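EI: anyone free to look at a 168-residue chain?
SC: sure, send it
EI:
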Amino acid sequence: MVSAVLLAFPAAIEKRRGSDFSFHWGALAVIFTILSVDEIVGFHEYPIELLRDSLGVGSLLYYAWVLPGIVVVGILGLAFLRFVLHLPKLTRNQVIISGAMFVFGAIGIEMLSGVQADQFGEETFAYSVIITLEESLEMIGIAVFTLAVYTHIAKSDDCLNVLIPAPR
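SC: here you go
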C-alpha cells in the first residue's frame, strides 16, 4: 500500500506538467492498491480449483491462476512499455528489476510451488522453503519499486512539500 500512496505523487507532478505519462503513474497507483488488497484477501486464489479442474491441469499449473496471471502481466507489460522506456535510466532500471523480481516470485516460483504441492502436498519443509522464496522475491521486488518511485520523486525538478503537523 505504501507504493500505491507514493505513486500518487509522481502522478500529480506529471499531471501538473501536462505529461502524457501522468495517466500511467495514476494507473500504477490503482494497480498497486488492487495488489495490496489481493495480498490480504487473496482474490486470485478463489478460481484455482475451478480452473484446475476445468482445464485438467496440475504440476506447474497446479495453482491455475498463473495462466490468467501471465496474460495480465503480458497485457500490462505492453501497455506500460512506452512509459517504462521513457523513464530516466536509473528509475527505468529499478522498475524493470523490481518488476522482474516480483513477477518471477509471484508467478515463476508459484509454479514451482505448484509442482511441490501437486506431488508432495503443502505440508512439507520443501514447500515452506519454496513459499518463503516466493514471498521474499515479491517483497524485495516491491521494496525496490518503492525505492525507484521515491528516487524518481526526489530527483524531480518540481518541489513537493508535505506538511505534517507536530503532535500536541
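EI: DSSP finds six helices and no strands in the chain.
SC: 👍
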